[in-house]
Amino acid sequence: VQLVESGGGLVQYGGSLRLSCVASGFTFSRYVIMRWYRQAPGKGRELVATISTTGGTITYEDSVKGRFTISSDNAKNTVYLQMNNLKPEDTAVYLCSTRIDLTTYWGQGTQVTVSS
């Protein structure tokens, strides 16, 4: 299993970014939950959003509700995180994760920096 994130960068307050996580080694046609986490400097890892690849059940952390949208393209084995109205407190490394057969997998992360 491999997860590869992309799409991070430097953006101004109120800007937008779309993160992508391409998964390989398994197919989105099976039931898995894909998760986006973030980790800011000096802080613990925080769960931001989740989506199930079948059925599309979605959850969000409270601080991103109404600003972030998680989605998946099962044909591309890819999960996205559309981030709008970004704030400096959204600055973090964003990581894609999933758990399959009792093993948790992580991507390498992509840096998001929001300037004020």
What's the average pLDDT?
96
The main pleated sheet reads as: 7 strands, mixed
Strand content: over 45%
SSE string, helices as H and strands as E:
EEEEEEEEEEE
Structure summarized in a few sentences:
With 116 residues, the protein is mainly β. It has strands at 2-6, 9-12, 17-24, 33-39, 45-52, 58-60, 68-73, 78-83, 92-100, 103-106, 110-115.
Architecture overview:
There is one protein chain. By secondary structure, the protein is mostly beta strands. It is 0% helix and 57% strand. The chain has no helices and 11 strands. The chain has strands spanning 2-6, 9-12, 17-24, 33-39, 45-52, 58-60, 68-73, 78-83, 92-100, 103-106, 110-115. The strands form 2 sheets. Strands 2, 4, 5, 6, 9, 10 and 11 form a 7-stranded mixed sheet that branches. It has a 4-stranded antiparallel sheet with strand order 1-3-8-7, with no helix packed on it. Strand 7 and strand 8 form a beta hairpin.
Task: Tag the structure with descriptive keywords.
globular; about 0% helix; 11 strands; single chain; mainly beta
List the helices and strands and how they pair.
Elements: E1 2-6, E2 9-12, E3 17-24, E4 33-39, E5 45-52, E6 58-60, E7 68-73, E8 78-83, E9 92-100, E10 103-106, E11 110-115
Parallel strand pairs: 2-11
Antiparallel strand pairs: 1-3, 3-8, 4-5, 4-9, 5-6, 7-8, 9-10, 9-11
